C-alpha cells in the first residue's frame, strides 16, 4: 500500500521554500515512488485519502482550493485530475464518514471547511457526474462501517483486526420521476364575427397568417362603421333633444 507524505522542501541557495508531496511504498522506504512540487506557499498541506475510489484530496491551510489526485499501482502512480477553487481561505477541514454521504446523488466525499474570515463552516461535496438512476457499485464498494472491530480491551492488548465492512446500498434512494399534470381549466370562448378572441392559436402557415390578417382588417372596418353610425345617431338624438327644449310648448 502506498504512503502519502506532504511537507516543505528546505530552502537552498537561490531557491525558495516549496511545498511538496511524495508517495512511498510501505515495503521499501529507501526512496519515494514519486515526488512532486506543489507551489511556493507556506501553509501546511492537509492530505485526505479515499481508499474506496483511490482519490487523494490535497488542501492547504490558508488556501482556497482543493486539489484532486488519483493514486495508482503503476507509473506515474500519482495523477493530477483537477481542483476545486474558492475565494474564501480555509483554516481547517473535516470530512463526513462514508455512511453519511448522499449515495443517490453520487456523492463520494464531503468536506466541512472552516472559513477563516467569516468564522463559518461550509460543506463542500465531491459528486461524480453520473446519472443516479441505479446504485453505482464501482464508486461505492464495501467500506468500513459503524460497528467496531475491536473492543477497548482488545485494542489495549494490541490486537490487530481488519475493520468490519458495510454496503452503502441501503442508503440509496431511487429518484422518482413524477409527471407534472397541469390542472384542467374550463374552456371559455368569446366569439366575435366568427372569431374566438380567447383562443390564441398562432398561425402555422403563411396562408393562415394572411387569412387571419384580412379577417382582422375586415373586423376593424366593421367596428369603425358601427362606431361612425353610432356617432351619427348620437348627434341626431342631441339635435332632437335641443329641439324639444327650444319648442314653444316647453316655454
TrEMBL record:
Q: Which residues form a coiled coil?
A: 220-247
Please give the Pfam families that the UniProt record associates with this protein. Answer: WD40_4 (PF16300)
Q: Offer an example of a GO molecular function term for this protein.
A: actin filament binding
UniProt keywords, alphabetically: Coiled coil
* Record's keyword annotation contains Coiled coil: yes
Xref: InterPro entries: Coronin, WD40/YVTN_repeat-like_dom_sf
Indicate the transmembrane segments per the record.
none
Signal sequence coordinates: none
Q: Give the SMART domains listed for this entry.
A: DUF1900
Which PANTHER family does the annotation name?
A: CORONIN, CORONIN-2B
User: What is this protein's record name?
Assistant: Coronin-2B
**What organism does this protein naturally occur in?**
Opisthocomus hoazin
- What taxonomic classification does the UniProt entry list for its organism? Eukaryota, Metazoa, Chordata, Craniata, Vertebrata
Amino acid at each position: 500500500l502506498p504512503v502519502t507524505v506532504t511537507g516543505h522542501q528546505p530552502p537552498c541557495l537561490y531557491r525558495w521554500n516549496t511545498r511538496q508531496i511524495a508517495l512511498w511504498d510501505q515495503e521499501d522506504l529507501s526512496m519515494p515512488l514519486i515526488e512532486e512540487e506543489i507551489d511556493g506557499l507556506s501553509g501546511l498541506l492537509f492530505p485526505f485519502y479515499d481508499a474506496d475510489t483511490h482519490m487523494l484530496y490535497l488542501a492547504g491551510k490558508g488556501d482556497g482550493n482543493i486539489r484532486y489526485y488519483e493514486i495508482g499501482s503503476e507509473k506515474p502512480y500519482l495523477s493530477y485530475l483537477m481542483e476545486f477553487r474558492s475565494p474564501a481561505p480555509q483554516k481547517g477541514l473535516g470530512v463526513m464518514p462514508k455512511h453519511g454521504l448522499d449515495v443517490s446523488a453520487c456523492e463520494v466525499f464531503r468536506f466541512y471547511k472552516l472559513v477563516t474570515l467569516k468564522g463559518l463552516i461550509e460543506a463542500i461535496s465531491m459528486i461524480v457526474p453520473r446519472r443516479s438512476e441505479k446504485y453505482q457499485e464501482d464508486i461505492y464498494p464495501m467500506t468500513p462501517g459503524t460497528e467496531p472491530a475491536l473492543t477497548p480491551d482488545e485494542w489495549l492488548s494490541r490486537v490487530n483486526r481488519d475493520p468490519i465492512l458495510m454496503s452503502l446500498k441501503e442508503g440509496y434512494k431511487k429518484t422518482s420521476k413524477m409527471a407534472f399534470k397541469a390542472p384542467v381549466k374550463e374552456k371559455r370562448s368569446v366569439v366575435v364575427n366568427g372569431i374566438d378572441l380567447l383562443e390564441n392559436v398562432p398561425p402555422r402557415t403563411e396562408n393562415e397568417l394572411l387569412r387571419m390578417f384580412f379577417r382582422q382588417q375586415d373586423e376593424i372596418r366593421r367596428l369603425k362603421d358601427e362606431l361612425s353610425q353610432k356617432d351619427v345617431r348620437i348627434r341626431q338624438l342631441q339635435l332632437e333633444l335641443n329641439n324639444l327644449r327650444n319648442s314653444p310648448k316647453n316655454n
